[in-house]
Structure prediction request, 350 residues.
Amino acid sequence: MRTSPVTATLNKGGETEISIFPSNLLVHYTENHMKKSTKPILQHIPDFLDYCEVERGLSSKTQENYSRYLEKFKVWLASKNKEGMLPHQLDSDTVWQYRLFLSRHQDSKGSSLAKTTQNYYLIALRALLSFFVAKDVSSLPPDKVTLPKDAAKGKTIKFLTLEQVEKLLSSPDPSHPTGLRDKAILETLFSTGLRVAELVALNKEQFDSIFDKQDFEVGIIGKGKHPRTVYFSERALEWLTKYLKTRKDNQKALFINYRGRTKDENRLTARSIERLIKRYAVQSGIPLFTTPHTLRHSYATDLLNQGVDLRSIQEFLGHKNIVTTQVYTHVTNKRLRDIHRQFHGGKTLK
Prediction:
């Protein structure tokens, strides 16, 4: 029986998100209907990016990441005078030479590419080869581009303890309009696990009915245009309510930049959210790696520590596949180890 292989896509910020390619894309590569293209690989890239948007429904950010990581492949081909290489001329030896280039590449400061970064370049190339399969273009099978097994092992999820989260949430001064807004932002992120792009897309009208409510839920369109529901705690609603009561403007955005020059739309940007969180991280003395996504990881980690199962976490986070959510098993593995040590140590055996 043929199964769908696990593949990966590059999401916002170049992070890897696991997905499953449809099994009907995995034809036998020697079948007669595969045709040889007369167009060089590099000229197929714009068509590949269109395919990502139209047929796979990937976000513009994912397309941007694919384009950026394939740029390295384009530069390497040019350095080898292979810009005219056709899809069916790409072989395992060529891929191996490219992998050696990535492994030995150093920037102007003499720094090498991290294993995870090398993976991003290979994932982009493998996605391009999967596009060739989908379009019946003869080329190297995608599964010939394998990822180093040890690269994934080195990737860890960075999250905050509840004590650190509390310090961060307590940093803004709610007696000032900007501080009150920032307090509402931080509480919202930790309450919902929203991605920063999803947060800045929220509109004020979505929260017209939150007053005097103890819990609240909002439907959003997440990454990849997938709808999901996010839930607000009573604590987050309290601060959102206080913030909204100070808003006397007619602007559409839920979170606005008070220093903005535009009268029509002062919606806070994702970069603005990242900067304010970094500022409060420094102010509260918590780890400097803290970003909006760190709060998303902290949200998921806290739920797991409270005994919520991975499948539910998948729904809360909006992951398309459970494999993506399994990066949080570092939490469940540690908890299970502690339980095993406490209750199954064989201490009563004689």
In short: The longest strand covers residues 216-221. The chain has two domains: 6-153, 162-341. Residues 60-79 form the longest helix (20 residues).
